[in-house]
Amino acid sequence: MHPFAQVLLDGIFTGSTYALMAAGLALILGVVKVVNLSHGAFFSLGAYVAYLLSVQGVSHPAVAVVLAGVIAFAFGVFLGKSFINPVRSHPFSVAVGSLGFAILFEQAAQMLWGPHPVSIGAGPPWAAVSGIFVRRWGAVSLAASVGILAALALFLSSRWGLPLKLIAEDEEIAESAGMDVEKIRYLTFGFASATAAAAGALLAPATSITPTMGRVPLILSLIVVIASGMENVLAIFLLAVGLGLLSNISAYLLAPQWSYVSLLTVICLLLLLRPEGLFGTVPGRDY
Amino acid sequence: MQRKLTGALALGSGLLLFLPLAGLNPFFLDLLTSGFFLASYVGSWDIVGGVAGQISLGHALFFGTATYSCALLTSLAGWPFAAAAGAALLFSTGVAAVVGTMSARLKGPFIALLTLALGEIAHEIMLGQTFFSPRGTYSWGGEGGVPVTLPWEAPSPWAMYYGALLFLILSTWGMTALARSKEGLIWTAISGSELTSRASGVDVTRHKWRAFLVAGFFAGAAGVGFAAHVGRATTSDFSLELSFQAATFAAIGGRGTIVGPVLAALFLHVLFQGAGIVPAARVILYALALLLVLRFFPAGVAGTLRERLRARKMVSGGEGR
Amino acid sequence: MRRLVIFLPVAILALLLSCLASWAGSENAEPIRIGVLAPLSGPFASGGSAFLQAVTLAAEQANSQGGVLGRHVDLVVADTQGRVDIARSEALRLTSQEKVFALVGAYLSEETVGVIEVAAASRSVLVVPVAATAEITDHVRKKYERYRYIFRVGYSIPQWAGMVADFLGGLRIARYAYVGAGIRWNRELAKALRQALARKGIVPVYETFYSPRNPAFEAVAVAVMARSPEVLVLGDPGGNSVEFVKRVREGGALFPILSVGGALGDARVAATLPLSAPLYAQAAAWKGASAAATRYAEAFERRYGYPPVGYSDTLPYDAAMLLFSAIRAAGRTDSDAVVTALENGAFPAVAGTYRFDTSHQATWGTPELHGIVIRWETEGARIVYPDSQAR
Description:
- The complex is a heterotrimer.
- By secondary structure, chain A is mainly alpha-helical.
- Helix content of chain A is 71%, strand content 1%.
- Chain A is globular, with a radius of gyration of 19 Å.
- The termini of chain A are far apart.
- By secondary structure, chain B is mainly alpha-helical.
- Helix content of chain B is 73%, strand content 3%.
- The longest helix of chain B is centred in the last third of the chain and has 27 residues, at 204-230.
- In chain B, 56% of the residues are buried.
- Chains in contact: A-B, A-C, B-C.
- At the A-C interface, helix 1, helix 5, helix 9, helix 10 and helix 11 of A face helix 2, strand 7, helix 9 and helix 10 of C.
């Protein structure tokens, strides 16, 4: 039974990596109300920051996470101010434009650091607990995703999160209440981008780092965010972990070839069975 | 305006008809031929994604269904190309009907998610699926794709060029006519607000379904032409990149205008593949084009121009359309 | 004044002569244009860039030694973007617009099947360095007259499997596992390897293919460990293989891993991986295997600042070298003469001496062309196969 217990634990870890990216994506969808396709690029940016630091001999993850977060915040605010906010009345164009930003980043990364995969040492394996290995980077990602999502939920329910909730509910009222909606929007965008980059920096040692590495996490977190209804933080986490479990279990029991197909099939079935959204929340407006 | 646009389009078509006679080399003939099919494919996205407002992120599904049907039916089943082409059109329209039915009760982002998932499923299956070639020494399918057996040994680039151009003109005309028809007006209304349309007695699910059907048919037709031109169906015909390409070109051209996306796709395809730009610069140019065009023309070039024109008319109170 | 009268005709004569000489010289030194087709943007840019770097190095070296037939070699580069339609159209650009004499490329099998049609139609020599699908050489065998311009320098799937099997046979093991990406040539390689190893009494205990999009590496790693193979063969040459090795090792698995080539041949990547158990990589050639290989590896490292990986760079380098040698042997830039030269000649290059069989496939797996297996150690790579070259 041990192998299967291991698969279950790994599935939870896999799901938590989906959730880690999904948190920022959901925040942007809720407050700025656009689909951000550059989120994966920020994830890669974080990973490259961690790599460049490790080449310089700085291997402490905290340094990489903070530096990646700050850089991504700056980029995010710039993108938010100069592109997202002015084009926001056309949500579809924002999504396509953010894809343009992602392509720009991928090409820049290829020119600066080469198209070949680079890697950071993952460290020695952790000890096994009664025959089950706790993967270091899996545990890190679980802790980080729970931390980020909990912090987000706490923030939104606190006094300081009120402006964000108000903007998410009704922008006009927020504006008439004297809030600088534009500013809150681009700050939110910058902050969400920073979380993606921090996640990339944190998980960099577990992966191989390439310019296009952010594409797959973007697709998977996009699936999680949209299917979970985009609002409920707990729903995002549960769905992410559920999909992580599903893809690992189907890879183990069925065949690894079908891990992606089974995940997508379940998403399609969920959409057909619950057309109003998985957790019953109807999107506030047509995108 | 309308008349001016028609005139410009006629002039453009005339130029394209004349170009090969002016001594275009085989590379440019080939480039424009694939550009014509690609443009028509992007136009078909605009039927469902622009006019009807149902953002599809799996449009390559219809395109790939057509190319793979052509390839498998001619090379494995030994059908003549014409019969395979007919069947391919039937299949891609059929797949569109299924997707339309599945997405009937869904809204906005959920449709994008469903179509994305379906497209990716098809891509994964085709990537993992191999077919024994009748020659027996190796298998077809997977990333290497399946060849299309064509009735001609070496197709004349001229015939392909004129055939593709004729197809583009006819399909664009057909799609524009549909978008301006009563059905198209209902699609536009649904795109504006599903709720309002439903309130005014429109059977929203049925008309959305029809938009998918039409889009699937035209995307399939473009796929058939593309398969005949390239001579092979590969998994990139089902790829997310191809689905996104339709959406991005349409966004640049102007969603919902049909002609805008078609011209944008043709222009950008020729610019990126034919102007001899080095690869890195080409990718950067593409990314900047997306960012800058959408920054200053948020509704796409044709869409924003149309908006401005209407705004001016409203101010000056000139004669309507 | 009289001096000027004498001087003027001499000057005019000199001018005329120099014009004539430069005209004749330009005729003589008209460059040989070679088209290079490789994916230089998108997810396959890693292999494509290494490809271009190696071919560029080969051309630079040829030019510094006086060119080919005394003519400068000009490379014309095209980005295939990993797509058959683009590869085909770019091949058409190179042959019809850029008027190249011969083509080197493409990288992926799906690109190459598009390019061979253009090469056959335009009667341009096409040297295929990496793409392994049997479809390429099968065309030459079935329709020689049309496709005779196509030659594959890289190993075919059965040859590749044969070399890997030969190495595994030397390890004296009985059970192996194979993990690859869920794509066609990885499956074909698994099948060919299974057949080759069955003859040596080595059986697979696990054989699987992961989805490149959502690979579920952890589950695969758990399943492999449960079967406890004596060697794990990794078929994916891409960046995913690096991540998979990390997943296997962090689960505590201590069986040796053999990569069939690619990212795990990169010294910079290998330096970050745990060496708790042997990590092998297959390559076409490696520094130290022969004088030519050492020269190449050192030149590559001098030029680009890091060592070659032995697969996506070495094979294209040899492809370019072979093309230059064949043009020299033919004595003129005539496609049919070059085809005859390639068919009948033996060409020493970095990986060994190349000959071509009747389907225009290089004869890998022979004593003079056999490939290398290296083992990564803390101080770098050590050649472990073939035994004659192990150090």
